Amino acid sequence: MLIFLCLVSANLLPQGMHSAWTHPNIHHHSSIELDPTIRAESPSIVVDRDGRVVVAYVVWEMDREQIQLRRADGPDLPFTAGRMMSKGVRASHPGLAAHPDGSVWLVWCGLDALQAEWKQERGVFLRKVGPGEPGPIVRVSESGGWSCAPKISIEPELRGKIHIVWEKGSRKQIQIAYRSFSPEGRPIGSVETVRDNSFARRPSVLATRSGVHVAWDELVSDHPGGEPDPDYDVLLRSRLRSGWKPIVKVDIGSGLQAAPSLAADAQGNILVAYHSTRRSPLVKWWTIRKVHQTGVDEIVAKDVVSQSNPSGEVQGAEFPVMLVAKNRIVVVSRTSQGARLHALDASQVGCVLDLSTPGWGARGIQTGIAETTDGAMLIARRGRKRLRLERLRFQDTPVQPVVFTPTDPRVKKESRRMVRFLPQDLRAKKPRGRKSYHLLMGDLHMHSAMSDGTGTVDEILARAWSRGMDFAALTDHDVLVGFEMMPSKFDEIAWIGDLFEARYDFVILHAFEWTSIGWPKGYGHRNVYFRKSRPARLCNSLSGCSDTHTLRAWLQRHRGISIPHHTSWTGTDWGSKDEPLVRLFEIVSIHGACEFAQNEPIRPRGEMQQMFARDGIKRGHRIGFVGGSDSHGLLWHHGVGWRQDPWLGGLTGLFVNAKRRQDVFDALYQRRCYATSGVPVYVWLRAGEIEMGSEGIVRGPIDLEYEVASELQIQSLEVIRDGCSVEVFRPGSTGAKGTWREPGILDPGWHSYYLRVQFRDRQPALAWSSPVYIKIEKQEEQ
């Protein structure tokens, strides 16, 4: 069923806001900052029985996260000063619900004390926060383990129960847990399991007069199949007087369906809003389905902005939050760099309002939405820099609907074909004399909605796994537009990585992106990786590691490495020969190839001088090459990327002794790696006993032993010596193997050799071996 969008001018917006699409029936009454600091996010909002507005959100001060609460006596009245509601050192995922008796209840997850090292532990807590003085804190979850992401709903009766659901994690699975409480906050029974033995996440709960309804999404893939997107389903289960009913399959189609939000219509049917990739390749859009006694309806409503503009920063619509008001359904969703509101009336004619602030660097997945007693709409969300509350009012007057369908000719250039990164015949190959080596391929550079990307942490890792990779790393930014990522966000990234690795035999490196401004005012961007678990506290450019020398010393203490990337755009600090700061170099990503200036056929983003791979080699730095997508989930990376599918921008091949986290790290540290532009290939290079990435002395002729294999035909194979091409082969086959002897007489000192391979494909396809570093000693005169 088609929904229409209504286009008018944007002059109704308050100062500091921008909208590409507005509606004459929506009036912006006001827009305020909920908190003046940039260390505030994840808001929840509710209106109590007497019309008071209550907002809860996370603040981070003095290395301590807490839940702060603010109240207003009405939608147009000022808020009181903030009051802390949680205890302990970590708090996240706040949720509010209003009871018919006039009380307001807060739920969150938190941690009492920090450990010396990273530890998977969280608990879920409940507290009455109004009216009057707050009540005692009640523990909802069982002690030990990871319990987080709680949601709360209260029955509409005066003596209605309080219902809470959350994620309960163990070593290899995530269950959906449930518990109910009396109106006074006393637990009723013990913790119950709604869904077990699964990878279930993002529960939502709705209490109605008929019962309690719980929706969640679940990763259902049994093994990697090479699909472009992982397979997630949306499921629902109801608890009636007779107990838990069988699971209802809301949407089990192929592709990614996730992040459900629940509401009930006037007839008592359950509405489920969630985002999906089924209708649009790679980019998600929300959908609403109706669940009733006889089954699940087809799509009730959907976001009709079904085509993204690849040249724009704002793409997609994910993590929908739904509210059924008196005469309309309101959906607020997160775009790639902002937020969008849809309002649908009974005839399914609707409008869309873009709440985004222009500029890169959106943060925040959680959005709060509530309706006041006089029909105003309140939206609490994380803006580009600060927490905001928007007050909207609807006026029901007839309008002429207009369809909005942005288009871009590049959208159809790439197909949604199956992707298998490492065929079995290539996976089984081993370098001569190295039977203990195993070849692995993966993506070392990806982003999620935890920073400035799209998608959840597990979605990003699941996409790499479903496409057939062996390892991956999520490298969300530590600092973005002046804001440090909340510690609980980094904790969740590490928890999901550990669980994913244990469940799927898929190596996950703990990592983050150390973010500084560009060279020479700053030090550029570097991805940081740890050999085992990351430390409990991170050191970033705003809290101790303000330069690369301090970062290097910190990494030595915690067994970590850093790798610069998109250096042609933001530059890097190479360091001196006595203190080299670059051991590995990301030579290719969605930003292009940073091998040399004006690189073809993959042009780099930017042309910063002396910041390419060959520049580093000529400076005397001994670097190895890796590739990473640097994907944020945006088509064409908002017009500056070189591929429509951002996840195919770069890959790394590794020769490891075992498929374990520490072995992957060791292979990187030893530079036993090579880079590709997203294609599955086998590359090996050695000079005598000096392996790819290693260094040593050669006495006599220099013989380079090489091997390249792929499913693609090799267009050219170049030998690059000391940053310059010295030989080109054109084998015209899918494989090349042989020995190349250096024909010249080299000066004494260090020299480097690496392979640059170009393949024939519809998209540019290249691979680079890490160099071998050879020292020619000066011969003594006889």
Structural description of this entry:
The protein has 782 residues and is mainly beta. Helix 2 (457-466) runs parallel beside helix 3. It is elongated and about 95 Å long. Residues 1-22 and 398-413 have low confidence and may be disordered.
Q: Indicate the percent of residues in helices.
A: under 10%
Mean pLDDT: 88
Please report which band the strand proportion falls in: under 5%, 5-15%, 15-25%, 25-35%, 35-45% or over 45%: 35-45%
Residue stretches low in confidence (pLDDT < 50, at least 5 long) are: 1-22, 398-413
Please state the structural category: mainly beta
Query: What's the number of helices?
Result: 8
Number of strands: 52
Ends: how far apart?
Answer: 91 Å
What is the rounded Rg?
Answer: 28 Å
How would you sum up the global shape?
elongated
Largest sheet: 11 strands, mixed
Which features does this protein show?
elongated, 8 helices, 5-stranded antiparallel β-sheet, 52 strands, mainly beta, 782 residues
Write the layout of secondary structure elements.
Elements (H helix, E strand, L loop, with lengths): L25 E8 L6 E8 L5 E9 L2 E9 L10 E2 L5 E9 L5 E8 L11 E8 L7 E2 L6 E9 L7 E8 L4 E8 L5 E9 L4 E8 L4 E8 L12 E9 L2 E2 L3 E4 L5 E8 L5 E7 L8 E8 L2 E8 L15 E7 L3 E8 L2 E8 L4 E5 L13 E4 L5 E6 L4 E8 L29 H4 L10 E9 L10 H10 L4 E4 L4 E2 L2 E2 L2 H18 L2 E2 L2 E5 L9 E6 L17 H10 L2 E5 L2 H4 L13 E6 L2 E2 L19 H6 L5 E4 L8 H4 L11 E6 L4 H9 L3 E4 L4 E7 L2 E2 L3 E3 L5 E8 L2 E9 L2 E6 L5 E7 L7 E12 L4 E5 L2 E5 L6
Parallel strand pairs: 30-31, 31-34, 38-40, 45-52
Antiparallel strand pairs: 1-29, 2-3, 3-4, 4-5, 6-7, 7-8, 8-9, 10-11, 11-12, 12-13, 14-15, 15-16, 16-17, 16-18, 19-20, 20-21, 21-22, 23-24, 24-25, 25-26, 27-28, 28-29, 30-41, 32-33, 35-36, 36-37, 38-39, 41-42, 42-51, 43-44, 43-46, 46-49, 47-48, 47-50, 50-51, 50-52
Helix pairs in contact: 2-3
